[in-house]
Amino acid sequence: MKIRVLVIILVGMIAMNVQAQKRYTIEINLRLEKQAQTQEAIYITGNFNTWNPKDERYKLTPNSERIGEYYIQLNDIPQGVLEYKFTRGSWQTLECSPKGRLINLHDQVIEQDEILQETIYAWRDQYPVSTAPEGLIVLENFIMPELNRTRAIRIYLPRNYKMSQQAYPVWYMHDGQDLFDEATSEGRLGPVEWGIDETLERLGDHYIIVGIDHEYEKNRREREYAFFPTSQTPMAEGKQYLSFIVHTLKPYIDANYRTRKDKESTGIAGGSLGGLISLYAGLTYPEVFGKVGVFSPSLWQDQQLQAYMDGFTPEQIQLLQQQQYFFYAGGRENRKIGGGEVVHMDQDVLNLVQQMEERFQLHNQVKINPMGKHGAWYWQQAFSWMIELDNQFNIK
After folding, report:
1. CA gyration radius for the chain?
2. H/E element holding 324?
3. Would you identify the CATH topology of the domain 137-394?
4. Nearest partner of 124 among 189, 74, 46, 198, judged by Cα
5. Whole-angstrom distance, CA of residue 199 vs CA of residue 181
């Protein structure tokens, strides 16, 4: 009897929640600039259809009276943030800027029925596939003896590198194929790159960037970026991966390029799991990495960080105090984990920063973007923020 009563109560609560969640009708009117006009079907994709780029239910209707205009009505859209992009049926045919670069998603806070107006200027496939900077060096099969495999390494040199005798500071970065080129980038919302070269050219072009490609298989990437085994990643290879960077890759880069080899001029950075392994790189090798960029770190996947920091000696802490950490998180980076618990990644970062400052008196720079989400579009902005600060600290 008690079980039956409990079931009735739970069903009632669920029904109340469903009823309480308000839903609205959204009309979107789309105009195509001359360059974007097409005879092909146009689709809208978003967080209402799990980002399916060719969902026949969400094909726009041409306006029979006006060339280059379309419309669609979205029904039953829940209250909250509506996110969407336009395609011609694939991630290769996303809308883009007039200069051919992918743009951020459209978003709108929905609290009532809405009529929205959008414009498409061009399509990504109208432009060259590659957006890599001229002169980007790619070492296709660089040997990783610590992991008994090979990997592509992407090396960005400043534009005036060949014309000067200057030595440059270096940033080592993960997910190398996502840093410079839309043709090799991948992501949940299309092939958005970090725009590293564009940012550096805008801010003075004072750095060498060494991008280390990740494994294309998701679980193998997770293994390389996991410092300790977890229930999700029982075969952690993060220690070997960092050893490769410190003992194999950095000596090669220092021997073959004009680098400033001191720790103050050597940084490591990444996003998501790349942010987490960058954090461990800084904590493990403070004598190597004087600068650490930790963007949207997946702290919720790691249960051993606190115990690891508990074991630091006074000598290690003294080295940590000589580093500069750059922490970034977005206010809309929320993750559901076991049991339906929601993790707020910005709060995770703020808690960690507070602990590190209280325990070790570390030098932390922190940026929280209240509207930021998880992905390369926002890490572009985080990287720009970090480099602007690093220019102040490190340019000699």
Report:
1. 24
2. strand 324-330
3. Rossmann fold (3.40.50)
4. 189
5. 13
Q: Which long-range contacts (CB under 8 A, 24 or more apart) does 194-197 make?
A: 194/376, 194/379, 194/380, 194/383, 195/380, 195/383, 196/156, 196/383, 197/132, 197/133, 197/136, 197/156
Distance CA 391, CA 388 (A): 5
Other CB atoms within 10 A of residue 207 CB? 25
Residue-by-residue DSSP string for 222-283: HHHT-SS--SS-SS--HHHHHHHIIIIIHHHHHHHS-B--SGGGEEEEEETHHHHHHHHHHH
pLDDT tens figures, 361-396: 887 999 999 989 888 889 999 999 999 999 887 644
Tokens at 239, concatenated: 């220690």
Q: What is the DSSP letter of 165?
A: -
Q: Is 213 left (phi over 0), alpha (psi -120 to 50) or beta?
A: beta
Q: How far apart, in whole angstroms, are the C-alpha atoms of residue 22 and residue 79?
A: 6
Query: What pLDDT, in 10s, does the model give residues 229-254?
Result: 988 888 999 999 999 999 999 999 99
Q: For the chain, which residues make up each domain, given as ranges? A: 22-126, 137-394
Full-model pTM: 0.82
Q: How many beta carbons lie within 10 A of that of residue 350, not counting itself?
A: 15
The residue assigned the tokens 């007039």 is 98
22-126 folds as: Immunoglobulin-like (2.60.40)
